[in-house]
Known about the structure:
Layout: H1 14-20, E1 32-37, E2 41-47, H2 67-84, H3 88-92, E3 94-106, E4 115-124, E5 130-139, E6 142-155
Antiparallel strand pairs: 1-2, 2-4, 3-6, 4-5, 5-6
Amino acid sequence: MTESQIEQPGEWDIRWILSVLPHRYPMLLVDRVLAIEPGHRIVALKNVTINEEVFLGHFPGHPVVPGVLLIEGLAQAGGLLLLHDLPAERRQQTLLYFSGIEKARFRRPVVPGDQVRYEVDVVRFRPGGTSKMAGRVMVGDVVAAEARLTSTMVER
């Protein structure tokens, strides 16, 4: 991405995220968007804290974010990217279903105190149809997880 292609944050606070995604606590896994290259790439953050409900059972005394939630966070970031360009009225009429996972790999545990950075790139986009994305979950400069994701756009 070149600087001229990257949109800068400002409008992508939590209110914007909530206006785009149907997810709510405890399933909303994106706190902030750092950068969007429309139709191509998104970088978003999630702050992992010990007070999240999942840590009551995964695992007591040794809290680790479940891998499935890392992949879901990638899917939510990808959803923000795919829905970004739609007019607000159309967004309200559209849902993205997470429809496939390929090549998922978990490289490093994610624990409370980590700041997760989701980096998602569009591999193939079909407006109104199925899209394929490649994503990485980063903690600092280390890849914690990665996967290829498929999503399908449907009417609500």
